[in-house]
Amino acid sequence: MRYLKVACSLLCFLILLGNIWTISHWSESRGVYDDICYLRQAHLFQRFGLSGLDTDISRDDDHYLSSKLKEIGFPTWNKPATAPCHNLMPATQRRVMQYPPGTGAVLALFPSGHQLIPLYVSTATIMFGFALLGIFYASAPCLTLIAGGVGCLAVYLMVNPAKASYSMAPTMAVCALAGFLTARLFGRSQQKGKTLLTVLLGFVLGLSVDFRLPNLFLSSAYFLFFLVSFLSCRKMKVFLRGVLFIFSLLVGMAPTLIANMVNAGSPLKTTYSGNDLARPDFALSVTSQYLADLQFALLAFVGASIIFHLCRGRTDGIRRVALIVTANLLVNLAFFMSHPIFTPYYTVPVAMLSLWSLLFNWLMEPAGAVDGGILEQAVKA
C-alpha cells in the first residue's frame, strides 16, 4: 500500500510538472476577448481597490483596455461603444463588463503583465494537493488506484480544457473543495460538525459564482436536498440548516451581487447580454457538439460512477451523495444543453464536482461501504 501510494503520488506530480512546463510558455496576449476583459477587471482592482467592482467603460481613462485591444488588432480599438465583453445596461445607461468579479480579483493578486502563469500554476498545484489528499485517504489498493486516476485526470484538465477560459482555473479548485465538503457533510452519519460543514459548503458554492455565473447551478441539487429533507421529516433543525446553507451561499456570492448593483442597477440583474442567457431551446446542433467533444467522455465516466455507487453502495451515505450528484448533473446538463453557445469546458465544473464528491465519499466511508466486486478482485490478483 505504501509503495502504491508513493507511485500514484509520483505520477500525479509528474503530470503537474508537465503542466507547469507547458503553462510557463503561455502568453497573455493570445487574442481572446475574454482574457483581455478578465485582465481589465484585475487592472481595475489593482488601480482602485474594492472600487474596481465598477467596470464602467469610462474608467478606462488610462487606456488600458484600448491598448490591449490595439495589441491584438481589434479594428475599432479606440471606440468604447464597440468594446467586446462590455454591454450597455438599460437601467444605468452605462457600458460595463459582463463577467462576475471573482476571476479578476484572483488575477489581481499577481503583478500586472505576469498574471496568467501564476494563476494556473497555483491552481494546478491546489488540484495536485487534492489528489494527494484522496490518495492519503485511500484504505485499499483499489481505492488508491482510483484516487490516483481521478487525481491525475484533475491535474491534467488544468491545461486542457481549463486553458480555454481564465475563469476555469479557480473554478476547478473550488469544485474540488466543494466535492470534499459534500462528502464530509452528506456522506457520513454522525451529526458533529454538520453546521460548520453546511456553512462552508454554502460559502464555497457561492464563491464559485463569483468566477462563473453559471456556477450557480452547481448548488441546485443541494437546494433540492434540503427542501425534500424538510418536507419529508418537518424537523426545525433541517429547516434551519437549509436556511443556513442559503445564507452562506449568498455571502459567498456577495461580490457578484454587489457588482450587479453597481453595474446593472440591481443585485438580481445580470450584466450579460441576451445572447449569453439560457433559453429553453434544446438545439440538436448544440447537443451534437457535446457528443463529439471530450466532455462527453468525461460525463459518461461520471454517469458510470454514479450507477456504480447507486448499485454497489452499501450505506445510506454512499447512496445519498450519489443521488445529490445525479440531480446536480441533470440540472446542469439541462441548462447547458439549452444554452445557445457551446464551449469545450461548460460542463467540466459539474463533472469534476461530481467526481470529487463521489471519490471522497467512497474514501471516507468504512471499508466495504462499496462493493468493488470484480474491480477489487482484479487488483488483489
From TrEMBL:
TM helices/strands, residue ranges: 142-159, 165-186, 215-231, 238-258, 290-309, 321-339
Highest taxon listed in the record's lineage: Bacteria
UniProt KW keywords: Membrane, Transmembrane, Transmembrane helix
Protein name per the record: Glycosyltransferase RgtA/B/C/D-like domain-containing protein
The organism of origin for this protein: Bradyrhizobium canariense
Classification of source organism: Bacteria, Pseudomonadati, Pseudomonadota, Alphaproteobacteria, Hyphomicrobiales
